[in-house]
Every structure is written in structure tokens, then in C-alpha cells.
Design a protein that fits this description.
- Helix content is 24%, strand content 17%.
- The chain has 336 residues and is an alpha+beta fold.
- It has one domain.
- The strands form 3 sheets. A 5-stranded mixed beta barrel has the order 1-2-3-7-4. Strands 8-9-10 form a 3-stranded antiparallel sheet. Strands 5-6 form a two-stranded antiparallel sheet.
- A hairpin with a 4-residue loop joins strand 5 and strand 6.
- The longest helix has 16 residues.
- It is globular and about 60 Å long.
- 38% of the residues are buried.
- The N terminus and C terminus are likely disordered.
């Protein structure tokens, strides 16, 4: 059976979305509230698809919508499994006939304003497809793109995700969902999709704050394939391939209707390229922590590998610390 996780390299990136234009659609009906602190709603839209809509006045702050836009665009560029995104217009008529579309705070209830909000494409028709927040550990080996959790850890560290990594699982067409042309057109499999990127870039604070467990998925089993630094190497190369123009263009995704001052976000984006150098250090801090998820880490990095040449400088002392696959007890400052 075809399994993408056997590939040594990530899927070829499809290229950044058009950063001068984010698809705009209109919400037709609201179905139900989704779980989570953002109080998002599952909605059917004018494009004939279902979208998880996060509102501008969500309890986590409007800046988290900017984070969702930027992170989603980067994930698509890097070839990681992430939902297509759009701006979803919610009008007064829909709000008037759906009283459950609202924001509930501790001591009050807020109405959702009419206008554009962030939309994340749902995997399919909720009446026909089962979408799971979690899978039993014994089933995770059946996930076709399980290696994306390794890549996602690298990207979460790079983008300063201060939340745990969240994902959903569903059964879908491999070629359609992952863009793998070598897969049979009718080949179905269990797929993982990375969701909820509002706490990248430090969430509402727009500041990089790093800690070993930030960005980690709750089940260590998704990292069982990690044997050495070589398993991270393709993803280090992937983030290295993102140039300054692509990074700084992300700010153009933010719609003017949101009335968000984006200059602080531009400053943060300006630090991303330099911050890439700190990502291996952050991974090592996680590996050296009491909750290291890399239980199968045993193999050395081959002499002369890209990692030795490009990324081994992050460790104190000699490069053979990496080659030997040994832990270091040094404390790391992971701020960038």
C-alpha cells in the first residue's frame, strides 16, 4: 500500500497562494459551533463547501486571524497538509436567523459583527465524512502523511506557536488532498490535516516566546519515525527555501476591512528569516527535556550530510555530539 511517510523528503511544495488575493465567499447557513476557545462555527458557503469560520471578535483576539492567514499560506507553500483558507462574509440576515452564532464571554454575550471573517475549509460534507480530533495510538501507523507531524514541529518552532499542535483526521483521496501525483486517482487513506494556527507568532501578543513543549502534538507516537537529525533535514531545507519576498508578502493577505494595524506584524515577519537558525536549537531543547517525544532516536547523522554542513553549528562544543546522537545537558536559550 502506498504510504507517503516512507518518502525521505516532503512533498514538493505547490508554491505560495496568490498573496495579493485571498478567496472571498459568502456564508449561506450556520450548522454548529465547533469545540475550542475561539468559538468557531461550521458554515455552508456560496462555493458549495463547508468552512470552519473564526470570527473577528473571537475571545482569542483578532490578531489570531492574521496568524491563521499567514501560517496557512506558509504551510501550503511548504507542502504540509493544511486546509485551504478564505475570507467568509457573514451578513446580518444569516445572523438574525441563527441566534447561536455569537460569542459567549464570562459575564456577557457578544454579537458577531457582519462582515468578513477567517474561513478554513472543512474536509468534506459533515453528513458524509467522519472527522476525528484524535486517533487511538494503535491506528496512527495507518495515517498516510504521518511524517507531516515532524515537519509541522519544525514549522511550529519557526513560527513561534505557543499552543499544542492540533490536527484532525479523516479518510480521503490521497491525490486530491495531498497533491501526490504518483498516488492512484482512487486511492483512499487516513489523512491528517493540521488545523488551528491562531497561536503561531505568539498569538495575540505578536512576540516570539519559546519553550521546549510549545508546538508539540499530544501523542508522542506521531514522532516514532524520528531516528536522528536526518529525519528533520528535509524540513530544515524546506524552511530555508522560503525567501524574504515570500515572507514579507504575507502581510498583504490581511484584509483592510479588519482594521488591524499590521506594522507590528511586519516587524515580526522581518525576524523570521534570521529565526530559522534557532530552530535546530529548539528541537534539541525538546529532545533534551524530560518529556522528549523522540523515543526511537538512536541513529547518527551520516558524515558530510547537509545537517553537518548547515545546522550542526547550533550545539555547543564539537559537531560529533550530533553525530554520536547523544544528548547534551546544556541549557539553551531558545529566543530568537
Amino acid at each position: 500500500m502506498y504510504k507517503e511517510r516512507r518518502l525521505k523528503r516532503p512533498i514538493d511544495p505547490p508554491g505560495l497562494v496568490n498573496l495579493d488575493h485571498c478567496p472571498r465567499i459568502r456564508a449561506v447557513n450556520a450548522l454548529r459551533r465547533m469545540r475550542g476557545g475561539a468559538q468557531s462555527q461550521l458554515m455552508f458557503a456560496s462555493d458549495g463547501c463547508y468552512h470552519v469560520v473564526k470570527f473577528l471578535n473571537n475571545p482569542q483576539g483578532k490578531r489570531t486571524l492574521v496568524n491563521e492567514l499567514a501560517a496557512s499560506a506558509l504551510l501550503r507553500h511548504l507542502g504540509l497538509s493544511a486546509a485551504d483558507f478564505s475570507l467568509v462574509f457573514v451578513d446580518d440576515e444569516l445572523l438574525s436567523r441563527n441566534s447561536g452564532v455569537r460569542i459567549e464571554l464570562h459575564h456577557r454575550v457578544e454579537s458577531v459583527p457582519a462582515g468578513y471573517h477567517f474561513g478554513s475549509l472543512y474536509p468534506g460534507d459533515p453528513n458524509k465524512i467522519a472527522v476525528y480530533d484524535l486517533l487511538p495510538t494503535t491506528v496512527l501507523d495507518q495515517v498516510v502523511n504521518l511524517s507531516h507531524f515532524i515537519g509541522m514541529l519544525v514549522v511550529d518552532k519557526w513560527l513561534g506557536n505557543i499552543d499544542v499542535r492540533q490536527a484532525v483526521f479523516f479518510r480521503g483521496n490521497i491525490r486530491t488532498n495531498l497533491g501526490i501525483q504518483s498516488a492512484h486517482p482512487r486511492h483512499m487513506g487516513i489523512l491528517a490535516r493540521m488545523i488551528d494556527h491562531g497561536y503561531t507568532f505568539g498569538g495575540q501578543h505578536w512576540a516570539f516566546e519559546d519553550a521546549p513543549l510549545y508546538g508539540l502534538y499530544r501523542d508522542k507516537a506521531v514522532y516514532r519515525a524520528v531516528r536522528s537529525w536526518a529525519d528533520f533535514e528535509p524540513w530544515f531545507e524546506a524552511i530555508d527555501s522560503v525567501d524574504e519576498h515570500a515572507v514579507m508578502s504575507l502581510v498583504r493577505l490581511v484584509p483592510t476591512e479588519w482594521e488591524i494595524e499590521t506594522r507590528p506584524f511586519e516587524i515580526l515577519l522581518g525576524r523570521l528569516l534570521e529565526r530559522r537558525k534557532s530552530v535546530p536549537r529548539m528541537i534539541e531543547a525538546l529532545r533534551a527535556s524530560a518529556y522528549s517525544p523522540f523515543e526511537e532516536w538512536t541513529l547518527p547523522v551520516p558524515t558530510g550530510s547537509h545537517f553537518r554542513c548547515q545546522h550542526a553549528h547550533f550545539l555547543p562544543g564539537r559537531c560529533d555530539q550530533v553525530v554520536a546522537g547523544s544528548r547534551t545537558s546544556s541549557a539553551f536559550s531558545c529566543s530568537a
